[in-house]
């Protein structure tokens, strides 16, 4: 028996950074974004002993311990350790992790891995969790138990899936508003958006710490309020299907977000973005906390090919993608049912054997 959990990665359009305390507690934060067809996967294979073996397929790393030990965070796949502890796993198992994007890509990878882990473990234990409980538990384990700096949006985006406008007022006060967007608007939006990997990765916790420090000094307060206001404006324009305005608002949002911390952008990213604008893009933004990862750019259909060519010419790596409207999922597969020695097929004219 194999228990699998899958959660989608996300792109945020506006409001990034306003979901981080203390701003979201004192002022209220707002995020608009969607999940995409890039995923974090967790596979659990139960064992008959007390051994827990964790495999990171992306990093070719294996960590072993057993259920009789206290779960200690030692920097080696601590996300799994914390999830096992939170779900009170007492049986031995092998855990396999794989993600479609690297850490620091700006797509919410670590939080999405946590959601996939908890989803698979809940399925294994037969525990029913509603989406709010699952997202809040993922936040608690990552932000409070593991002390990893960050906001709220990634856990909720990965859990709920689809297009959402999410409002944050601190722990246990998060409201997810699913957006009912017409299919033709979603298709047009996806066609006009380019997702470009900058080739850099970032440590989001360092950028978030700098952002919080600046906020506590009241340096970027106006910029953060503007980023929040833009999230509301983007929601309205997207629901109405006014994608030209939506594209221009992305540009306003990126300029406002860069005022929140000097670590959010780099000269290389600024050059890539400016070249996209020169080629005809209306706007865009770096995904995640900043510093590297994926750049999302909106461009009208008739200049899309020019923007794509220009971004690749200056070092960007375009990625195929699409929107994903489903959130976290889990299922069980029993591979032993198909443990055949051979396949036999009888057709007119003879019988064929295919050894396996």
Automatic annotation (TrEMBL):
Biological processes, Gene Ontology terms: GDP-L-fucose salvage
- Entry's family note: Belongs to the GHMP kinase family.
Q: In the UniProt record, does the keyword Transferase occur?
A: yes
Query: Would the keyword Transferase be found if you checked this record's keyword annotation?
Result: yes
Q: Which Gene3D superfamilies match?
A: 3.30.230.120
Q: Which UniProt keywords apply?
A: ATP-binding, Kinase, Nucleotide-binding, Transferase
Query: What is the organism field in this record?
Result: Lacrimispora saccharolytica (strain ATCC 35040 / DSM 2544 / NRCC 2533 / WM1)
Q: Name one GO molecular function term.
A: ATP binding
User: In what residue span(s) does the GHMP kinase C-terminal domain sit?
Assistant: 234-312
Q: Where is the GHMP kinase N-terminal domain?
A: 79-162
The protein's name in its UniProt record: GHMP kinase
């Amino acid at each position: 028996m194999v228990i699998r959990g899958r959660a989608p990665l996300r792109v945020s359009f506006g409001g990034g950074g306003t979901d981080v305390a203390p701003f979201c507690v004192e002022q209220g934060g707002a995020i608009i974004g969607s999940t995409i067809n890039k995923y974090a996967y967790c596979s659990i294979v139960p064992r008959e002993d007390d051994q827990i073996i964790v495999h990171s397929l992306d990093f070719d790393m294996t960590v072993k311990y057993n259920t009789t030990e206290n779960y200690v965070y030692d920097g080696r796949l601590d996300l799994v350790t914390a999830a096992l502890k939170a779900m009170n796993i007492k049986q031995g198992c092998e855990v396999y992790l794989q993600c479609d994007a690297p850490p620091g890509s700006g797509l919410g990878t670590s939080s999405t891995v946590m959601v996939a882990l908890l989803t698979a473990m809940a399925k294994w234990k037969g525990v029913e969790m509603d989406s709010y409980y699952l997202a809040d538990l993922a936040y608690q384990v990552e932000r409070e138990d593991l002390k990893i700096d960050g906001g709220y949006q990634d856990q909720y985006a990965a859990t709920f899936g689809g297009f959402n406008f999410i409002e944050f007022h601190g722990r246990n006060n998060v409201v997810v508003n699913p957006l009912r967007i017409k299919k033709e608007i979603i298709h047009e939006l996806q066609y006009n958006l380019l997702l470009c990997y900058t080739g850099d990765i970032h440590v989001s916790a360092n950028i978030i710490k700098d952002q919080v420090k600046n906020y506590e000094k009241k340096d970027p307060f106006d910029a953060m309020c503007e980023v929040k206001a833009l999230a509301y404006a983007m929601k309205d324009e997207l629901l109405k299907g006014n994608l030209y305005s939506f594209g221009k608002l992305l540009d306003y949002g990126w300029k406002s977000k860069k005022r929140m911390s000097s670590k959010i952008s780099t000269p290389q990213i600024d050059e890539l973005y400016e070249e996209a604008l020169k080629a005809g893009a209306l706007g865009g933004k770096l995904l995640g906390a900043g510093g590297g990862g994926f750049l999302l750019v909106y461009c009208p259909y008739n200049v899309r090919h020019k923007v794509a060519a220009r971004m690749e010419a200056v070092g960007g790596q375009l990625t195929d993608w699409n929107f994903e409207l489903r959130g976290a999922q889990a299922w069980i597969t029993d591979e032993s049912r198909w443990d055949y020695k051979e396949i036999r097929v009888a057709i007119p004219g003879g019988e064929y054997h295919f050894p396996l």
